[in-house]
Specification:
By secondary structure, this protein is of the alpha+beta class. The chain contains 4 helices and 5 strands. Helix 2 runs antiparallel to helix 3. The radius of gyration is 21 Å and the shape is elongated. This is RseC/MucC-like positive regulator of sigma(E).
Length: 146
């Protein structure tokens, strides 16, 4: 996936970039770019040595994007379903009369645990560099003043 962005700061071989909103962003609700006027900033590998203010093209591998989507959406959903199933079994074992509300609460507990696990492994994900964007092209050679 490729997006246009503006370099806002540099740190060694990394650059913080602000993703440029496109007209398609206003119709999409997949991230905070489309849902409000807030700008999305990410750190990207800066192997092309882009300077602050330059318009660049950033890329994230499709595999990494799919993996991130799986981690954030599918794993918690599986945790919720597992929690509901275990809650129903546990309600039967403990002879709890309100099985469905108990299993729903157990499902919410499991979804919270999966999000906690994802958060706890965030440093691992950052170190793996799998989810890091990369500046692949400088589109505007003139640095702009903010």
């Amino acid at each position: 996936m490729r997006e246009r962005a503006i370099v806002v700061s540099k740190r060694g071989k990394e650059a913080e970039v602000e993703i440029i909103r496109t007209s398609a962003c206003s119709k999409c609700r997949a991230c905070s770019i489309g849902s409000n006027k807030q700008m999305v900033k990410v750190w990207a590998q800066n192997e092309v040595d882009a300077e602050v203010g330059q318009v660049v093209e950033i890329e994230m591998e499709s595999r990494a994007l799919l993996s991130a989507t799986f981690i954030v959406y599918v794993i918690p959903l599986v945790g919720f379903i597992l929690g509901v199933a275990m809650g129903l079994k546990l309600a039967d074992i403990l002879n709890i009369g309100w099985r469905e509300p108990f299993s729903f609460i157990t499902g919410l507990l499991f979804i919270a645990l999966t999000f906690a696990g994802i958060y706890a492994n965030n440093r691992f994900f950052e170190k793996s560099r799998m989810f890091t964007s990369k500046i692949v092209n400088i589109l505007d050679n003139q640095a702009r003043k903010h």
